[in-house]
Amino acid sequence: MRILIITGISGSGKSIGLAALEDAGYFCVDNLPPTLLRALVETRQKDGAAKLAVAVDARSALSLAELPADIRWLKQQGHDVKVLFLTAKTESLITRFSETRRSHPLSHREATDKSPTDRPTLVECIRREREMLADIEGLGQVIDTSGLSANKLRAWIKDLVGSDHTPLTLLFESFAFKYGVPLDADLVFDVRILPNPYYDLALRPLTGRDEPVIHFLDALPEVADLMADIRHFVEKWLPSFKNDNRSYLTVAIGCTGGQHRSVYFVENLAAHFHDAARVLKRHRELD
To answer: From which residue to which does any coiled coil extend (predicted)?
Structure first.
């Protein structure tokens, strides 16, 4: 059976992700205590189910420590198990909770543990939840949903689900350093040292996917040199990442605004590695 466990920080989009998986044909269960995971899988297997998605979060705090062992057991039984961990920057989470006017799930539990009137702040709940889920974050693919729309998150998850049948998915992502490094990046390359098309008024409104910007960067020897260095690095170490039984490898390319140079590099690298692995690409600021 293909099993996808979706977890992460409250407010980072688990409900949206679970809905996307349901649309993709998965039988979905939300907020399942890890102690019930094995029984659920056995029941669904008897029913002949092929795909199962389960959301697990900090509300099941007492049994979270058992999740890694449960995942190992499921793999030993021959199941194809993937873990998807959603996270976001604290300021993004605060904005989302403020917009929805919902309280953090841990605020009720923490208040009960202490006293009904002694509720922790939202920031304290987020910090506590990060500590509780720290050991789980390294179990699978991390997606930073900061600034992502619901539609874009659904699209990204469907792309990742579509790549489940391959040993490793190589994901190239462009971003702007002024908005922060993506939390889900495994490798980060800085291309701000290269001439910036932004300062050419004719190129400013364009992106790294437009022909005038491509011609501008193609003509620079230092661009070709840096591109060759990044290609060589990824080519050299990609077999090691595959041997490490990774499902995903995210290579983030950053420039100042995430519009010209980083987009150009991602487009070129994705095309170059097309035959070496399952390749996906994201342009965070353009998206």
So the answer is: none
